[in-house]
Structure formats: C-alpha cells, structure tokens
User: Fold these one by one.
Assistant:
Number 1:
Amino acid sequence: MTRLVMKFGGTSMGDLDRIRRAARIVAAEARAGHSIAVVVSAMAGKTNELVAWTDGAGRAAPGLAMTDDEYDVVLASGEQVTAGLLALTLRNLGHDARSWMGWQVPILTDDVHGRARIDEVPGDVLGAAIDAGQIAVVPGFQGVSRTGRITTLGRGGSDTSAVAVAAALGCACDIYTDVDGVYTTDPRIESRARRLEKVSYEEMLEMASLGARVLQTRSVELAMAKRVPVRVLSSFIEPDAAGVLPEKSGTLICDEEEIVEKRIVSGVTMSRDEARISLLGLPDSVDRPAVVFTRLAEANVNVDMIVQSPSRTEGTVNLTFTTGRRDALRAAELMREGQADIGFQDIRVDEDVAKVSVIGVGMRSHAGVAQTMFRALADKGIKFQAISTSEIKISVLIDAAYAELAVRALHSAYGLEAV
C-alpha cells in the first residue's frame, strides 16, 4: 500500500457537514489502497476565538516570568477538537481511525512557544499504525518540546505539520483547501487568473512569502528541503456513487526539473501587510545602518526592502526599510528608544503601502522582465517607493490605493491569462 498524508484546513473543517465531506474524501483514498495520515486545522475562526480568550485572561502579575506556554495549551485545543471529530466521523463510516496528538506522534519542536519550529518527527510508530490499516488523524499546528510542554507553530502551522509528517513517512502530501490550486494571481482581483498545473518549490516559496495565502512559507521551505511532493486540491469535491474521487488536478508543487516548459513569469502577488519606516537625517557613516539593523534583529523584527538616499542636510542620509504591519509599532519603538545612539533626526511610519511582486523561474534566463514590469506600472501612472529582487522575483512597494490596479496591469503585461 502507498502511504499518503492528507491535510484539511480550517474552512474544510468549518462545521460537522464539512467534516463529514472531508471524511468521505479520506475514506475514498483509503478504499483506493492508501495508508493514510490526516492532518487537520481548527474550525475556521476558532483560533481567533481562543486567542481572544487568552488575551482576556490577562498578563502575568509583576514578578512572574512572561511566557506563552499556557497560551499554547489553549490554542492547541482547537485542532484537537477537529482531530477527534474527524476520527469519530470516519469510525461512523466503518473505518478504523484514531487521533494522534502532537505529543503522541511525537512532533518534537524547540521550546519557543507561539512560534515553535519542528526539530524531528520520528515516523516509525505512526507509519506502522497506518500500514496496519488504521487512519491516523493528527492535529496540525502543535507539537511538544523536549521538556514535555505543548507548543504551537504559529499561524498557518498546520501546513508545516502536514509536510513534516509526510517527510517522516516518506510520502506525498495532498493539501485540501477552499481553492482548487495555485493561481497566476488572486482570482478575486483578476477574473482572468489561471490555475497552474505545476509550480516549482522556489516559485511557491516566493509566492507564499510575498502574499499568496495558499500555503504557509515554512511548509514550502520544509517540502523543498525534504523533497516532499505537495499537491493543492479543493476540499469541495465529492466521491461518486461508487465512492471514487474525481481524477486529481489541482496544483503540484515539485522540483523545477519536473516542469517541462519554464514560464518566464508564473504569478503576480500582492501583500497589504506592509509598513514603511523612514529614519530621516541619519549620520552618513558606514556603521549607522549596522546599528539600526542589529537592534531590529535582536528583537526578531524581520526587514525586507531597504533604501538609503541623500538627505537635504549635508552629512546625513535618509534610511527607509519595510517590515510587516504587526512588527511596525515595535520597530518604531526600538528606533525611538535608541535615537540618541543611532543619531537620526526624525522618524516616519507609513502603513498605507502595499507590496506587489512578479515571480517566475524563467527570469533566470530571460532579459527584459524588469523593463516589462516598470513599463506596465508607468503606463498606469503608478510610482514605486522601493524595490527588492532575487533570481526569480521582483517586488515593488507602492501606494496601497493602487495595489489591485498594479496586479491587473502586471498580470496582463506578462500574458498570464493565456497560461
């Protein structure tokens, strides 16, 4: 029998009817001869509710250590509920199924509560169980530290759980979600967006980190490192009267070598989760940027685009960088706290910005990609404020009001409606 990991997201686990549909899909794969482990998210909206409860409980009193260990205990319960419900539903359909908590597999992590990273997933015991015919249902998003405490992996962590379990079992991973694959851009913005049959790990990693919400970034990193084939599929399907699933389509995330025809550009993404921070009147010396970014790194604030430009005051420069909106307030506080040491004159924070990116492995071997991008933006009168590039992507920071217009313009400029 061939092993298979299946993952169902929060929308797919949204209520009992959807859990029953997921169970029918799992049952169909079992009848097709697969040994199955299923990874599940909490019901849509449940994690937000649990976070609100932990916030309502209040902070620790003065003198007690600030830690998120009990926060993780509360949040992990959402996935435990859906794991148990799916196992019960599969039993109702006549299948041997049981839930495996993160500490039972075990999914071993570091001890950074709230955003733990997976260290190891021993697959022997779980593999033996599914090979014997049991359907294992594993709650995503959670693990256990070496000291025996429950940990959570951060938002979207169930994708990472699924890929980690697939890597441990040495098999492929099917991720069922509320879309039927990865598209050239968000179909809600551009109606002519097309579903991609295959996307390379590198392209998907860029797409995930730049605003595409189909897969979590760390799950793609892990899939690429462990060479786990990942297929994104719609959970809104039904087996036929004979209990057979439709032929799989969706989007396969795979090695670049498996893609016969390399597209110059595969997709356009947009992220509104951006903030621009500008330090004005910074002394023009080689060590000042190092001081700025050391402070940010020590506080675990991720920085993306960086631009340094001359200031109106002689001997000074303006330093601009971007970060996620969630980190913007903290980053600004760090800069103000260190203003005397850093030496800048003023600081400005702008959250009314968006990042638009074009991604494609074909960029490595084709000239003119940047020219096409900047011409398309210029034709629409869209100014860019910062640029960042890699071998397979170009990102620009623009006024948030023009984000959707920019996405449509770039999608058309690269002919993605014909993919």
Note: The chain has a mean pLDDT of 93.
Number 2:
Amino acid sequence: MRLTRRHPLLVAVPLCALAVLAARPTDGEVPQAPGRGPESGISAQVVRLYEEAAAATLKYEAGRREADRQRAEAQRLEKLLDREREESAVLRGDLGRIARSQYRTGGGVPLTAHILLADDPEEMMRGQRALWKAHVALDHAIEKNARAEARIARSEAKAAGAWKALEKRNKELADLKNGIEQKLESARWQLQGQADASVTAGSCRGAVRLDQPEFRLTDSWVSPVETYVLSASYGSGGALWANRHTGQDFAVPIGTPLRSVGAGRVVKVSCGGAFGIEIVVQHTGGYYTQYAHLAAVAVDQGDRVSPGQWIGQSGTSGNSTGPHLHFEVRVTPEMGSAVDPVSWLAQRGLTL
C-alpha cells in the first residue's frame, strides 16, 4: 500500500484555526479592522459634512445672486413705470389745456357757425383739421401709454414675485447651510476628542481610509491643503518654540482633508509629543515632508502616496493653540533638519 505524503499546509490549517479561536473576542466584543471601527466613522462624517456644507454654500450664493438680479430688475421696472406715469401726466395736462383753449375760443359753438362767422372759412377748416389731428394723436399717445403702463406693471409684479420667492428660497438654503455647519462643528470636536485621547495614550487609532476625491492633477506638486490662510511662517519666533518655527502653518478648521504635496512613501505615523499626531512622507531627491497636529490619519506607515492624495485630517493635537496644519520640509525624517517649505515648494513651481 502506497502512503501519500502529507502536505505541510494541512498541518498548518488546524493550528491556525486553534489560534483564531483562542484570539476571538469575548463578552460580545466585535472585532474591527484598523481604521474601520465606529470611532473612525466620525472622520468620514466630517469629510462628508465638509462636502455638504460646500455644496449648500454654493447653492445659497447662487440663489442670493439671482435674488439680487431679480431685485434690481424690479427696481428698474419701477423706475420705467414712474417715467411712463410722468409722460402720461404731461399728456393729460396737454389735453386739458387744449380743451380749455377750445372752450375760451368758442369751442361750444357748432362748427358750421364758426365757418359762417369766420373771415376766412378755408383757414378755419385747416385749423379745425389740425386740432382734430392733435386730438387723435393725443388719444393714441394716451392709449399707448396706458398699455405700456399695464405691461410694465405686470412685469414689475412678476419680477417682484420672483424676487420674494427667491428670498424665501434663500432663507431655506441659509437655514440648511447653518444646520450643516452646526453638525460639522460638533463632528469636528468629536474627531478632535478622539485625537486627544490617542495622543494621551500615545497610540494612534490606525488609518481611516477616506474615499478619495475624483481629481486629475497635471502638476507634480500641490499645496498640502486646498483652501487655507497662511499663519506662522518658517523661522518666526514665539513662546511656543524653543528656537524658531520650523515649518509653515496653514490655518484650517479641524477635519480639513490634508494632501500629500507630492509622490512618496509614508515613513512615519506617530502620536504623542509636541507635534501630536503626525505623518512624515519621503519624496525623491532625499527630502521629507511632515504634517503635524492632526486629528486623524488616512495612511499607514509604508504606504505609497501620490500628489494630492488625502493622507489625513487637520486638528489641534499636541503643542497647539488652535486648529491648523504644521507643514514642514526636512532633509531627514527627524526634526532638526528643516528647510524653508515655502521656498522649497516655490522651487518646484508651486507658489503658496
């Protein structure tokens, strides 16, 4: 009888099963993948609320511009209507003067008697024809003015109605925008609370894999945040730094998605210390970029990143007095080797 050779994998399978059973959580615990647990959901919620707030703001601004346009149109029509009314009043005044003049010159006497009594009947007839034409022209002008006034009044009412409807819609959009911003502010500080807990424990929560935005970058280098205000600059002095400020600060709200400025590899993700939660990325040419005081990370050590890829979210962890991103460029992965990041990016075609 021929004996079959047992494959080593068949022995490993039962051992692995035993290891899995031994490692199963107890007391109802549910295992969570790194960066995918309930706590990580707040990161995605903040990003989603950022997008909703931006979309609501765009709608509100577009509605406000349209309401302004409708208001201006209503005002323009009101002025036009006032002008038409003034012209109508002048015409009516002219008609009144003509009627009074006729009365004073015998307008109540029959036309036949005028002709018989006139020295020059032919001239009298010409005068009456001219007067008749003037009456006809005046009547036509008054009718035309009345039609124009009615038309403008309808247009004015339509424009005013549209303006009021837009004002109502804008109020609804403003309420929606404010509601989203309130939710966003609450979610930001919830996210920051998780970051502070991680820094206190000295242990990061793991990468939160954010859904990356759809974009097509034509540049090799981008700014670390899309919208920002520059605050503390490289080399500036202050009570918070032992010597000089080693990076460029970007004042942005908590939870703002952060972008890798260029292609590279994540060589460090850490929590604790003066920088709080930080990421260090190695780029070609021997340079490193650091992103510090974060509220969350979206990459793990060893990950490859591309220009513009979201790698984390801004915060105010560590030695920080308010929400911002501390961005640094170094010649080594560690602090103490920083160079001016603004000049460094400018050399690569990016002006902050």
Note: Confidence is low (pLDDT under 50) at residues 1-39.
Number 3:
Amino acid sequence: MQRSDVTRDDGTWVGLSLEVQDRHRPELSVLTAGPRLLVSQLSRPVLLAVVEEPLRGVDFWRADGYRSFVPPLRADAGRALSGRPDGWAHRFARHLGDSPGSPLHDGRWLLSCESPLQRGRHAATSHAEHWSSMLVEGHPGGYVDWFFHSVSWEILPLGPMPGPGDSRVKAYRKQAREGTLPPVLLWWVSGLDCHLILDGHARLAAAIAESVEPPLLQLHRTVPRDDLAARVDDAVGAYEYELARHAELRAVHGPTVPDGAATAGPRLGRRLQDLKTVEQPTWAWPLPGGEGEWRRIAREVTAGTGRPRTRPRT
C-alpha cells in the first residue's frame, strides 16, 4: 500500500491518500442481495440491513460479529500524537493495511480529518447534544432515517455504545479533558448513507460525556487512478474553453472584457483539489445465494432474541 499526504495550496493537511493494490476482496465488506445488505467481517455477519422503498431509510440489525482491527491505544500515544491528525492517520493506515478485518480493497482511499459531521453543529447546541443526535439509536436493531436526517449523515456504531461509567470511557474522559483523545475512526458506507465506527466507540462516548468535539478520521473511497487522469483532463479542458470564450469576447468588445482567468483559475483549482478528496460510492459484492441466503442468515442471527419488531424485514 502506498501512502501520500494530501494538503491544500496553503499547506494545510487534509488527509492521507492510500493506494491499495492486490487486495481484490476485503475482509470487511458489504454484500448485496437486491435491497438487502450484509456487512461481513472474516465471514462473520456484522450488520444486516434492508433499504426501505422508495429510499426513505434502512432497517438494520447488528449481529455482534464486529471486532476492531486496531489494537488498544495507550494514553502515552495520545499525548505523543496530540494535535497530530496526520500522525494518527499514518498509524491507523498501518493497521488498515496489515491487520485482518479491514475494509480496504484495490483502489484509492482517503483517510481524512475533515468530515461533514463536523459542519452541522449549531452554535447554540452543545457538543454533547450534537454528537448524541448524530448517533443512530437502537441495539441490536434500529432504523437509519434518510428522510429525517437528509444530508446530515449519521453515525452507526457497529456495537452497543458504552455508557459514561464504563471503565474504558472513564479513562478516555480524562484524555478528552486534556485534549489528547485519539481520533474516532469512521468508514463512510454509501449504501447505508451513514458512517460506521471502525474503532473508537468508547472514545466517542467519552467525548459526548465531556461535551467536547471528538477528533475524527474518516475513511472513504476516492477517485480511482485510472479515472483520475481523465477527470483532470476534463477540468483543464473546461478551464481552457473558458479562457478561449473570454478571448473571443475581448476580440469583439475590447479589453474592458476580463480575460476570464480570475474566475476560471480558482474554479480549476477547486476542481483539482476535489479530485483528491471527493467521496466515491462504496463497493459492494453480490451475496452468494442471494436473498435466500440473506434470509437464512437473518433468521440465524435474530433467533431467540425476542425482538421481532426491530428485526430486519425478510
């Protein structure tokens, strides 16, 4: 796996680009059978989901199969990397590339410290209120409401969120107060239209308990290399077309017409920057056995739970 830092024109660090090769099928993957989804890790069912037509939300059921591939993070690491999202990104990237149970597969990915989740908080809303509202409720079953949370992108834990009295949360609350809390690692999954917590359930709970903004690192697919060159050519072509159009206008109306560079140049810069960071849809693979297999897994996972109302529809 090749890693390279992504920065803005002013040098501000945005994220870490990951170029993955020879990893055709990830060990944490999304499988599909019509409107039914299965998130599976190392052949263990993690999350069952059914997209509600007409695209209003997702019924889900956690299968208690998820295991984080990130080893426990020590407090001294939090202090050493405090304020260093780039350092944390490189550390998490090693685990993403080397540990079993990771969602990485062939293509380009971005591990970014910038997330749309951080832009939605109203000034009058506390961090605790905001981040609590971003959490999808319900365990083991629940509902991701696309209508109510349109374009606000919720967070779906892959296990039950620990309470403020949990021993891990208590330890992280001290780090949250000190400003040394390690980032919460999220994975954007387009088929669910929300973020899954890959690592950091207790850290997010600690940030909410202390009402501080949790540091985040968001993982998502970005433009593949074989498509990147074509998109760059399109952006440059649009820039050149705009300059040529202004040149024709100047030839007719004189030098009072601007040459177009003042508007076309920044637009080109924004498009090229977006190509480094823009989210691409999550890859999914057909579930062997289709809907019949999905229903079999759903019956097996939900058997004996006594929670039929929150069970994903079969």
Note: The first helix runs from residue 75 to 80.
